[in-house]
Amino acid sequence: MADGSGRRTGRDILRTGGGLLNLPLDIIADILSLLPIEDILRCRSVCKTWYGLTKDSYFFKLQFRRTFYHMPRLMFISKSENSVFLLDGKQCKAREIALPTVLGRNLIVMSSCNGLLCLASEESPNPVIISNPITGKYIVLPESVNASYSFIQLVGLGYDPWNMKYKVVRSYIDNSKFTRFEIITLGEASWRQLDVPCKVVCGRNSRPIYCEGALYWILDKKFHYDGDGCILAFDLREEKFGMIALPPNIRMPTGNPGLYNGSLHLLNVAGCLTVIAHECQFLHIWQVMRNRDRGFSFRYHTSDMHCRWSVFSQPVLLDWCKDSLLLSVSKFGVYSERDLVEYFPERKQYAGHHIRGLPKWFRSCSFKPNLISPLDCCLS
Fold it and tell me: In Å, what is the CA distance from 202 to each residue of 126, 132, 242, 335?
């Protein structure tokens, strides 16, 4: 087709490949690797050449390198845990992606790292799956012997950028009532036990968060051996634990709504480890700043939400820009329907966001979509 002037439209060029088909394949690959993941998948239907090019392992690695330093996108996980929804902010819709079901079991999303998801069960140590939901490819990790008698487990996936290795850390509670840890590097045949500097207990809600070469857990002070609230950090390069003392103005939840009407969350927000405390109408935010020479420091923000949340409402910070906060707000209770709400502190205004395809109940995680195969991560 052509427009009124007889010129071919951009849609025609995309459909036929236009002059791009005459370019060297490495240049075409370089151009296509810059596109959003949705556009790359659409380009596969343009011609056989582009289809084969975007299926090649060289293109996977090229596209992965391009997206490695991009800001993560938002992924929503449904209540049933059998599918995820990738947010397309430009079109205000969420695309549903089915998750693999192994041995007829639906596993939950434990963590996310560089476009890969870690799937496991809280009650059973096996299986643990590393999946790329974009391509549908996944691997099953070797079974654990040490955690076979655990009562509850949490599994975190992280990336060691110095050695370019993906590592999985499992926390589990056994008969000792304290949390134990073990690790496996993708490609290894067995799990290895880890030593913790003190006795700790990670609660059911303390899912590990990956950020810049480390995994983090938030510990409640009533469980910590020294009696102080802190963050447990695990350096994936050194494979050693460390403790980050929380600022004294962070009030730890007590489990008694009459004593503390709030909640505490540890999140990766736009690539920054963040502690969030919600109490009544206030949202307190601490950004954890890491310096290898000077250790950890905190940058504090607070925002009056001008709205008294009920004890069952859980506004969770998902992302922020210069003048607004994006929140996930439940209407009545923890498992009730949720909405996406944008709050503008300077104007003291809220704006609801209707996202087509979003499930009625969801939790969120940061996600960097790419085409890398979990099997390739074992071979790196």
Answer: 19, 27, 15, 22
